Amino acid sequence: MSENNGAPEDSGRIRTGDVSGTMVIGSHNTVSNLKITAESGSTVTVHGGPLPDPVRRPSISQLPRSVAEPLIGRARDVYVLQKAIETRQLVQVWGASGVGKSALLRHLACTMARGPEGVAHVEAGGRTADDIAQAIFDISFDAPNYKPSLEVLKEHLKTLRLRIYLDDVGLDEKDLRRLFDMAGQSTFVFTSQQRSAVDGVHAIRLDGLTASAAAELVQALLSRELRPDEAPIVDALCDAVDGNPLRLRRIALSAATGKGLPGIADLPELLPALLNKLRPQERDLLYLLGSLSGAELSPRHLHELLGRPDTEALAEGLVRHGLLLASETGYSCPPDVAECVLNMRRTEFPADRLCRALTVWVEARDTTPDDVAAHFQALDVAVLRAERSGHAQLGAALARAASPKLALSRQFDAWGSLLGAGWAAAKSAGDKAGEEFFLREARARKRAIGRITQAAVMGIEAGVLMHELVALHAHMAGTQVAAAVSAGTPAIPAAIQGAVQAPVLAHAPVVTSVGTAHAHAANVARPVIDMSSTSVPSHAATHAANASATAAQGPPPIDLSGSAVHSHSATMSAAGASHPALTAGGAASAKGGVSALALACTIGVAAVLGVGAMAYVSDQSSPSPTVVADPIGTPGQIDDTSDTADPVCATVLPDLSSESRTFNTDSALASSAIDSYNTAMASYNSGATSTPPDHTMFLTETGTVVSDLEDFGTTLQEASAQAQDSSVSSDLDDMLTATQDIKSQYESFGGGQGSSEIDTTSQVSDLNSAWSSLQTDCGE
């Protein structure tokens, strides 16, 4: 990203050395001043002056760094892509990890003619569509201290005619299309692992190298010709690894160590064998980067953390041999390498050292907001790892130090992510002042960009939050990186946004005397997490510190924005009262997780603290049923409706918006009551207390949630009766059917009618689909 965060020298408005200044945010009727200081954070006031006037740069150019090694075996691919880029507006390069997509994209950006007005190469890994759009704006316009609203941002971007190269895009189809539409006259060339289904995208799959190209690559790495006996071996190995250049580099390294080329049977154990032959300083470097769940560090970070002046040279050597990955801003560890090295070490790089070094770096006067934004994923991972390893206070301190500069970078979704992680660390550390700081910053951020509701503010101030909130972004990194869903402005209803952790009463006998007046529950078990029910989220999301003591791959996370299966069981006390036995569990597929982050509830927290809310739980051996609170997502503000829309739309959309916020508040309160119950049950399970807790409050709050769903259903019913458009009426009826089904399940569960499971997966899907259709039919 172009460094454009400081004001002109004579303005003195932003000083990144001591982290202070004022930023103008928004446009038209929502213009605000965001004043930022390191000491007290951010404050928002109404902007009283003239709006900044962004000036297009005379030469728009942001190219990747030059690549030392030439592309090998890609002449035909380059030719095909050049022709596609010259004739198409949207071009995708997709393929397996390690196949060479990023190297090819950098080559194209550096060698092809620029667009009519310039070229921009942006590393998109982990970034949201809004943050990518802001980065393109910063590259293209001189607009110090200005973050325009999305509407005005689009007005500026749509005038550009650039050739934009995006590497490692992890956006879903909706966000990808929205990004393309923002800069509608520009050409986009982007890479990702999965083929895009967006209309108009010309997708080109990048396959592995041919046998002859593989031989050429191995010869280049060995700095010699292949011997006659080696040529057929390389040919067979190329076929075995599908011509993957990253794996071929490792094969060449094996030959360079003196043992000769490996056989096909040796490939499964090739990576551990290579790591064992590395020098200690190289293994230390892999150990550090392998502990970061795919996030990258700069050469400066590596030097400070390892205390060696030659870390960049070491890193480049490991990149050459396929053991590290290089980007524009630093180095990261491939997932399989990270898993292997962490299995060998049986531990992770100390989180306290990581946090202390990054805090010093963040606070340094020469560390710019752009520098901090480039490494927001490493900051998130460090904060999360500190929280789960007993150094939560250090994690909170790092997040607090980084927050002002990340805000000044104008990458607001990355900023929201860090605020969520920092808040979780502060809460875990018992740092009340820290909690208040992050909540204050979250409110300032949302107010500044006009995306906060009064109900959400009240919920935060009432403390109805998840125990451990993690707001992270997308960055797929093999088996280490989890998937999440971008929160944005969820549709009605965003499915599971929060979950609750609860102890379980199972069947472990407790001996009591016959004459005891009050007996323990007959059967007690320790809390467990049921991770058996998984589903695939819609948006590749985020990285998280995840390697356990014995493996880099952690347990699946709970997706706080997708639906899940929720259930409960009951155990009788001596008095005959039924006590729900609750555990956390739910839906999401993942390739990593973070232990020691408990699941709890949220009142639209994703809409307050950032995007991609995701909670991770430690792996447990015994699965058990689950119960999850289902807040309904709050739709965006409705400005007006189309002239041709059904008149009922003018009232039903705002009404549903208001009622969904009420539901969010009450469902979060219900989860908070369950959380209190959980704490008491944990004490009971551990033997600290002798009496099972009273679950009356939990049942009362659940009843309130049922009442909210009744109100929601009544609104839908009345609107359907008034609707004049048959499509609108059908949408409302579909929403009503799904709402009634959800309410029925909650009634059965909370009312003690014997239900042992709540599974709203299909109903939530139907409700989301109907809401989307309603918005369309209402002209939204």
Indicate the percent of residues in helices: 40-55%
**Widest sheet: strand order?**
5-7-10-11-6-12
Secondary structure tally: strands: 20
Tell me the number of helical segments per DSSP (H or I, 4 or more residues long).
Answer: 25
First and last CA, distance: 33 Å
Describe this structure in words.
There is one protein chain. This protein has 780 residues and is α/β, with parallel strands linked by helices. The protein is built from 25 helices and 20 strands. The chain has a six-stranded parallel β-sheet, sandwiched between helices. A four-stranded mixed β-sheet has the order 3-2-1-9. Strands 4-8 form a two-stranded antiparallel sheet. Helix 22 runs antiparallel to helix 23. The longest helix has 38 residues, at 649-686. Mean pLDDT is 73; it is low at 1-17, 452-642 and 752-756.
Q: What's this entry about, in short?
A:
This protein is an alpha/beta fold. The protein has 25 helices and 20 strands. The relative contact order is 0.08.
Descriptive keywords:
about 775 residues; alpha/beta; six-stranded parallel beta sheet; four-stranded mixed beta sheet; 25 helices; disordered N terminus
What's the SSE blueprint?
Elements: E1 20-25, E2 32-37, E3 41-46, E4 55-56, E5 60-62, H1 75-87, E6 90-94, H2 101-111, E7 118-123, H3 129-140, E8 141-142, E9 146-147, H4 150-157, E10 163-167, H5 173-182, E11 187-192, E12 202-205, H6 211-222, H7 231-240, H8 245-259, H9 270-277, H10 280-290, H11 299-306, H12 311-320, E13 325-326, E14 331-332, H13 335-345, H14 351-363, H15 369-374, H16 376-388, H17 392-408, H18 412-429, H19 432-448, H20 454-461, E15 558-559, E16 565-567, E17 569-572, E18 578-581, H21 605-609, E19 614-615, H22 649-686, H23 696-722, H24 726-750, E20 757-759, H25 761-777
Parallel strand pairs: 1-9, 5-7, 6-11, 6-12, 7-10, 10-11
Antiparallel strand pairs: 1-2, 2-3, 4-8, 13-14, 15-19, 16-20, 17-18
Helix pairs in contact: 3-4, 3-5, 6-7, 6-8, 8-9, 10-13, 14-16, 14-17, 16-17, 16-18, 17-18, 18-19, 22-23, 23-24, 24-25
